[in-house]
Amino acid sequence: MATIKDPSGVDILGADGLPIYFSLPDTLGSHGYITNVKRSLDKYINDNVCITNNIRASFHGLQFDNTSVVEWIETRIADIKRVYLRQGSNTEYAYNTNISYTVFINVKKSGATTSDRHYKIKDIIHQFFKYSQKIALYNYIEDASFITYMKVREVEDNSSMQESLDLYKYMIQYRIDFTELTIQP
Question: Is residue 8 part of a domain?
Answer without folding.
Answer: no
